[in-house]
Design goal:
Largest sheet: 9 strands, mixed
Helix content: 25-40%
Number of strands: 24
Structural class: alpha/beta
Low-confidence stretches: none
CATH topology of the largest domain: Rossmann fold
Strand content: 25-35%
Shape: globular
CATH class of the largest domain: Alpha Beta
CATH superfamily of the largest domain: ANL, N-terminal domain
Distance between the termini: 52 Å
Number of domains: 2
Radius of gyration: 22 Å
Length: 461
């Protein structure tokens, strides 16, 4: 069990705050232990991952019970939610039960149970992530991987039990849930979840570390008083999507400190980061964290055989380390594609590395993964839903530059209908709200090459 600080003898008042709900460490252990007592079997447990103290209790309780957790986005549509539940093999449900979910509810017991001894290599969390095609895949993260990833950040960010972490990020991804909640619980520090990542709510918290995605930081600097209030913190961390250099500079100007940028994926935890006590460069995601290794391979067949560390030459980024996942559940095809052998994971990202070892992410090998508002969104999943609509004959979904979201989702549609809002609503009803297109463009035909493959790079040109 990797939440070792929870089972210590020292209590911590206000260990977890979510909105108006406050839990001491003892209260959290008690509630989580009673939740664990109500888990009917070995799981997995699907958790309706709202931004509430109940979600923190459920996730912590499942970890104490040694039962895998499947955080389910609360805005999931029936198609997405049904896939996650079926694919994960979840046997029970925690939280409000949406229509169509017939799993038994976890009913907390009258008394807390003693934490179970768990194999660190066993799957502790099953996080669903969008790839470039098809439905979301379940990334299996072991307790050992989560512990290794967090311990590396404790060192890199000078994270101590005296820190208070504040954020308002979703509790169903690595950033908000593992870094933003399990990190403080493992370290023995405090966490304040603001329910929503609004500038005024961030500014109202007296925290030493703030976590946000570029969309959040963009909104914060648009309210200068809120941004200046964060200057009292010792660390401002940005991740989940590239931080524009102009936004980096605005954050630094208003808060008096440059933000720390880092890089990771659901499958890898955080493998690169600037250090709290080290250099920070706009657009650069730093050095490998302790235990992580990186390598750059030629970006194309006609590229040089080696990729020099000159800060200019682009290579395909691969990583390895103890914080990596154990593969996608039930997807041998995807596993064969992403593992390069000897523990190296193909990230699908393109990067450059300077002589000092700093990395900069410059894009994707594929054009089919969209990063919008801090979310990684697979265009194939959206395309599949749109093709189910009777008014759509062909569709191509891409990410277009957006000053707030980083990228906004744009769908280019060939079909009889011309009601763009109806298509947006159709996606929002089937998938998570953040996966809906922000724009529908009707075209007579999609650009294709001689082999018939859609050339997405020509769309919007």
């Amino acid at each position: 069990m990797f939440l070792t600080s929870l089972t210590g003898t020292q209590d911590l008042e206000r260990a977890v705050t979510v909105g108006d709900d406050v839990l001491s460490r003892a209260e959290l252990v008690d509630r989580a232990g009673r939740f664990a007592a109500g888990i009917p079997d070995d799981g997995p447990v699907a958790v309706h991952a709202t931004a509430t103290a109940d979600t923190v209790v459920a996730v912590t309780g499942a970890i104490l019970a040694g039962v895998p957790v499947v955080p389910v986005p609360p805005d999931s549509g029936p198609a997405e939610r049904g896939h996650v539940l079926a694919d994960s093999g979840a046997t029970s449900w925690a939280g409000p039960r949406p229509e169509g979910v017939d799993l038994p509810l976890v009913v907390p017991g009258a008394r807390p149970v003693t934490p179970r001894a768990v194999d660190p290599a066993a799957t502790a969390m099953l996080l669903y992530t969008s790839g470039t095609t098809g439905r979301p895949k379940g990334a299996q993260l072991s307790g050992a991987a989560i512990a290794a990833g967090l311990d590396a950040l404790f060192e890199v960010w000078d994270w101590t039990p005296e820190d208070t972490v504040a954020h308002g990020l979703p509790l169903f991804h690595v950033h908000g849930l593992i870094l933003g909640v399990l990190g403080p619980l493992r370290r023995g520090s405090r966490v304040v979840h603001t329910e929503k990542p609004q500038p005024a709510r961030y500014a109202a918290v007296d925290a030493s570390m703030y976590f946000g995605v570029p969309t959040v930081w963009n909104r914060i600097v648009d309210e200068p008083d809120a941004a200046r209030a964060l200057g009292r913190a010792r660390l401002l961390v940005s991740g989940s999507a590239p931080l524009p250099a102009s936004l980096f500079d605005r954050i630094a100007a208003l808060t008096g400190q440059a933000p720390v940028e880092r890089y990771g994926m659901t499958e890898t935890m955080i493998t690169l980061s600037a250090h709290a006590s080290g250099e920070r460069h706009a657009g650069w995601v730093g050095l490998p964290v302790p235990g992580a290794e990186t390598r750059l391979l030629p970006a194309s067949d006609d590229a040089p055989a080696t990729v020099p560390d000159d800060g200019e030459t682009v290579g395909r980024l691969e990583v390895r380390g103890p914080m990596l996942f154990d593969g996608y559940r039930g997807r041998p095809d995807a596993n064969a594609e992403c593992w390069a052998g000897d523990g190296w994971f193909r990230t699908g990202d393109l990067a450059v590395r300077d002589p000092g070892g700093f990395h900069r992410i410059v894009g994707r090998e594929s054009t089919d993964l969209i990063k919008s508002g801090g979310y990684r969104i697979g265009s194939g999943e959206i395309e599949a839903v749109l093709l189910d609509h009777p008014g759509v004959a062909e569709v191509a979904v891409v990410g277009a530059p957006d000053p707030d979201l980083g990228q906004r989702i744009v769908a280019y549609v060939v079909g009889d209908g011309r009601d763009g809002q109806a298509l947006i609503d159709h996606v929002a009803e089937q998938l998570s709200w953040h996966k809906r297109p922000r724009e529908i463009v009707f075209v007579d035909a999609l650009p294709r090459n001689a082999m018939g493959k859609v050339q997405k790079k020509l769309l919007g040109a």
